[in-house]
Amino acid sequence: MKTKLFILLIFLSSIHLSKAEVTLPNIFSDNMVLQRNAEVAFWGWGNLNEEVTITTGWDQKQYTVKTALDTKWKVLVTTPEAGGPFTITIKGDNEIVLQNILVGEVWLCSGQSNMEWSATTGAGIDNAEEEIKNADYPNIRLLTIPKRTSEFPQESVPGSWEVCTPDTMKDFSAVAYLFARRLQGELNVPIGLIDNAWGGTPAEVWTPVSVFENHMDLKEAAKAVENNKWSPGFTAALYNAMVYPIVPFRIAGTIWYQGESNTANYSTYAKLFSEMVASWRSVWGYEFPFYYVQIAPYKYGTEEVGVLIRDQQRRALKMIPNSGMVVTSDIATIDDIHPPNKQDVGLRMANIALKEHYKEIEGVVHSPLFNTMSIQGKKVEVTFDNAEGLFSKGKKITHFEIAGDDGQFYPAKAIIKNDRIILSSKEVKVPNKVRYAWNNIAEPNLFNGAGLPVSSFTSEKQ
User: Fold this and answer.
1) What is the C-alpha separation between 275 and 188, in angstroms, rounded?
2) Which domain holds residue 442?
3) What is the DSSP letter of 23?
4) What's the whole-model pTM score?
5) Choosing a second label site near 445 at 20 to 30 A (CA), which of 16, 59, 68, 427?
6) pLDDT tens for residues 61-120?
7) What's the order of all strands across the beta sheet hosting 420-424?
8) Which of 445, 441, 453 is nearest to 398 (CA)?
9) Domain presence at residue 35
């Protein structure tokens, strides 16, 4: 009798354990920020054919959905103008209550070590002690996605949202925090940051397998970075584990700081990068803004691989709609691949977002970019986009070179005329090529009136 009773209890327990509760991916947690004025997706799992109801605290509206045959459910919830804190209740056979939820602007912050770099990483950032002490922003919320890899797309990530305090900010992405602080100060709305950066990673590991299946040149070029000792050695490893699981959590846009680990296959970087961005936008289902940082001058060695990546990043701007690029040649520390001046990087990216995406500020927010060159006898005239107020920090403009038919470049004398540059060299009688700041460690001195440095460039096709 006792044996039969024991078996019955085991059987009943197994029935109870097999009854799945409504669950959410970890990106939904207390303290999170939801994108304002949008239809945001909630999704998760439950019992087969279970009815799940979401009640939103800002209007007490209810959204009901049933799980599908795979026991998954998904529903779109309409968010209001910025505000909070709110509660959100998810109820099926069990109940989940998410608390201290804000509605505002959500940004994904990705890339390699310069995005991952915190106020306390390594040598830290400029003015780190003061920045940490003042990082008390209850309307900025932080989510760090731990480093994970996968050969296949995953459905959730570890981690949970935290309120921005000196204690939570000190180990969070410094660039992302400084970007958010500027946005929050100007927009006066809550800001949510999702940090999924990983130092040392090439763009290939952030890009889905489908891109390489459709572009054999990118698949071949990827072999050059597969053995990176700081990074997983297979394509899509981080896309599968750190990007795909948070789709389709609604974001306002993405900021990106990466490129240093693609010097081995620089020639395909612009195409790879543009395809990566397109693939992210495709799975999210809309063309969110994508703002990125051009890598800073650094001693890479004898080959000019650093400047070649910078030029690929410049060229990628025309390949990626709704994008913007921050130039960092003036904040370089050529002996350290991690410039400590993260303040100007975060500020410049935020200013691009504030002007281009939010339409909140006026003025020039982009660095001057090479536009045209025209031959005028023995001289060359160069024009730039975003060149208003062009000036040099120094008596002479540095780092311009011109070449003739023989392809040999010589230093050029440069003068500013009506926000254009006029170049000449005694060594070049008939110039037909121009380049600027064309080496790994070049720290040139030409800026626009907004104090933003001119990007390195070459007029040659790459």
Assistant:
1) 34
2) 369-458
3) B
4) 0.94
5) 427
6) 999 999 999 999 999 999 999 999 999 999 999 999 999 999 999 999 999 999 999 999
7) 369-376, 379-385, 420-424, 413-417
8) 445
9) yes
Helix ranges restricted to H, 63-188: 113-116, 128-133, 166-169, 174-187
Three-state SS sequence of 340-360: CCHHHHHHHHHHHHHHHHCCC
Q: Which residue has the tokens 């001195």?
A: 445
- The rounded distance, in Å, linking the Cα atoms of 291 and 288 is 10
Distance CA(86)–CA(152), nearest Å, equals 35
| Closest CA relative to residue 186, chosen from 23, 46, 27, 365 | 365
Q: 390 and 338, same structural domain?
A: no
Q: What are phi and psi of 3, to 5 degrees?
A: -65, -45
Written as six digits, the tokens of 315 are 């060229």
Domain's final residue, options 103, 127, 155? 103
Q: Residue 275 sits in a domain of what CATH number?
A: 3.40.50.1110
Residue 8 falls inside a structural domain: no
- Residue-level length of the chain: 462
Q: Under a CB-based contact definition with an 8 Å cutoff, are residues 437 and 397 in contact? A: no
Question: In the Cβ-directed half-sphere of 406, how many Cα atoms lie within 13 Å?
Answer: 7
The answer to whether residue 201 is domain-embedded is yes
Cβ pair 66, 49 in contact under 8 A? yes
In this prediction, residue 18 carries a pLDDT of 44
